[in-house]
Design goal:
By secondary structure, the protein is of the alpha/beta class. It is built from 8 helices and 10 strands. The chain has a single domain, classed as Rossmann fold, CATH 3.40.50.300. It binds adenosine-5'-triphosphate and magnesium ion.
Length: 256
């Protein structure tokens, strides 16, 4: 059966394909059907915002996409592999190799320095210490923290901590970066800086899938997916989609 393709402004084959994803929780005698049959594709280079009213299932969906949880039924193809029903260890390995996750409350390890926090995903991949350090310093510098390499999270502002989290999410050069309310804890100026960092990542070709209530983010993304009561309510181009199309056409003209 061929499913209708959602509008998208990425390129190539999907990195993520969800097919009839359902997630239910059993609480005593009551079954709560949180995701009720979601199917969608996400393509390389897209900047996707997932929106919807509180309780509609956004975080549940993002946790599934992030391999932090698994669907009750349905298929999730991530980078060519169905990860919907893997055992815990294999799922963790897939998460570590293919995904970067940014949390609203940063989730940094307080005892570790900036570079050590960025090294954590590489450590779990078994990378050599000296290689990890070179990459961690480069990423910290990329997010504007070259002057804070050996500080602890408590010695950093919220915006700086979120930048460490962004660098950590980039550490294993993931297929996709996922974030749940990444600007939710930040004041408007720090939030703006983080939004600009995301714009830059997307310009470099990174695929971003973010849950957000932040209208500023919606103005910058290429696609908006709206959920309602666990259903896909709308799937529309974001404000940046047209801009992206024009930029690509110009590039193709230049290289023609
Ligand atoms: N572990 C769980 N057990 C039972 N119910 C859960 C569990 N996790 C989430 N839910 C329920 O699933 C529904 C969706 O929750 P979810 O956290 O995905 O919402 P959300 O769209 O992210 O909301 P918000 O915008 O407030 O963060 C809610 O009704 C919630 O109570
Ligand atoms: Mg949520």
């Amino acid at each position: 059966m061929s499913l209708p393709r959602a509008p998208h402004h990425g390129i190539g084959e999907p990195i993520i394909s969800l097919r009839d994803i359902r997630k239910s929780y059993q609480m005593g005698d009551i079954t709560s059907h949180v995701l009720q049959g979601l199917s969608l594709d996400i393509y390389p280079g897209e900047y996707v915002c997932i929106m919807g009213p509180s309780g509609c299932g956004k975080s549940t969906l993002l946790n599934l996409l992030g391999c932090l949880d698994q669907p009750t039924t349905g298929d999730y193809i991530l980078g060519g592999q169905n990860v919907a029903h893997l055992d815990d260890d294999t799922l963790s390995a897939e998460r570590c190799r293919k995904l970067g996750f940014i949390f609203q409350s940063y989730n940094l390890i307080q005892q570790l320095s900036v570079v050590e926090n960025i090294e954590v995903p590489m450590y779990y991949r078994g990378m050599k210490d000296s290689d990890m350090r070179v990459i961690a310093v480069r990423l910290a510098t990329q997010v504007g923290l070259s002057h804070r390499l050996y500080h602890r999270p408590t010695e950093l502002s919220g915006g700086q901590q979120q930048r460490v989290a962004i660098a950590r999410a980039l550490a294993n050069d993931p297929l996709v970066i996922l974030a749940d309310e990444a600007t939710g804890n930040l004041d408007s100026k720090s939030g703006q800086e983080i939004l600009e960092a995301f714009d830059e990542l997307n310009r470099q070709g990174k695929t971003l899938v973010f849950v957000t209530h932040d209208e500023r983010m919606v103005q910058r993304c290429t696609r908006v997916i709206r959920l309602r009561d666990g259903y896909l309510d709308k799937d529309e181009p974001g404000a940046a989609a047209e801009r992206r199309k024009t930029e690509r056409a110009e590039r193709e003209l230049q290289t023609a």
